[in-house]
Write a structure and sequence with these properties.
Shape: rod-shaped
CATH class of the largest domain: Mainly Beta
CATH topology of the largest domain: Immunoglobulin-like
Strand content: 25-35%
CATH architecture of the largest domain: Sandwich
Largest sheet: 4 strands, antiparallel
Radius of gyration: 37 Å
Strand order of the largest sheet: 1-2-6-5
Helix content: 25-40%
Structural class: alpha+beta
Order of helices and strands: HHEEEEEEEEH
Length: about 190
């Protein structure tokens, strides 16, 4: 279809050139001087606008693909797990600060938080220092029982949700070790 339009635009352009030459010759010879200049401007204006319109439509369609990158609505900072290494402790405390990137946007605030271990689907709820998820900045804390876990190195992921259904995640490496034998001897 684009080739047909291009071809038609080229033919129309050639016709316009021939008409310009013919009407200019008539104008120079003095045949109908007022009518000839009016015809020349009108007809050539129509031809030029037609050629331009056909040429613009004759371009190949362009396909542009964009991947929308979501703007994070929350940020997590100062994520820690202690004791780390666990050194035989049966409970680890995970702490972090969470904040909303744009709190003025529809009264956006931190609405919930939870933890997950790597390769695990169990969500461990976290809480705030003031007991309620209702502010743009929250100090988050969670206690995790690790007494039944084998000695290993794993990742603990903290997920934070906002009141506008935005979220953020961050992880911290946790080293689970056996109790230190020197501390038991003492």
């Amino acid at each position: 279809m684009a080739r047909v339009r291009n071809r038609f635009a080229e033919d129309l352009g050639k016709l316009g050139n021939k008409l310009l030459g013919f009407l200019s010759k008539m104008e120079n010879q003095g045949l109908m001087p007022g009518v000839t200049s009016w015809l020349k401007v009108t007809i050539l204006g129509l031809i030029v606008s037609s050629v331009t319109a056909l040429s613009l439509h004759a371009q190949e369609p362009k396909v542009l693909c964009y991947i929308a990158i979501p703007i994070p609505e929350a940020e997590i900072s100062e994520l820690t797990a202690s004791p780390n290494p666990a050194a035989g402790a049966d409970t680890v405390v995970v702490k972090a600060k969470a904040s909303v990137v744009d709190p003025d946007l529809d009264s956006n605030f931190i609405s919930s938080a939870y933890l997950q271990f790597a390769a695990d689907t169990i969500s461990i709820p976290a809480w705030t220092s003031d007991g309620a998820f209702d502010e743009a900045e929250e100090d988050i804390e969670a206690r995790v029982y690790i007494g039944d876990m084998e000695a290993c190195t794993t990742w603990v992921y903290l997920y934070v949700n906002t009141s506008r259904h935005g979220w953020a995640e961050q992880c911290v490496q946790l080293i689970i070790t056996e109790p230190d034998s020197t501390s038991e001897a003492e």
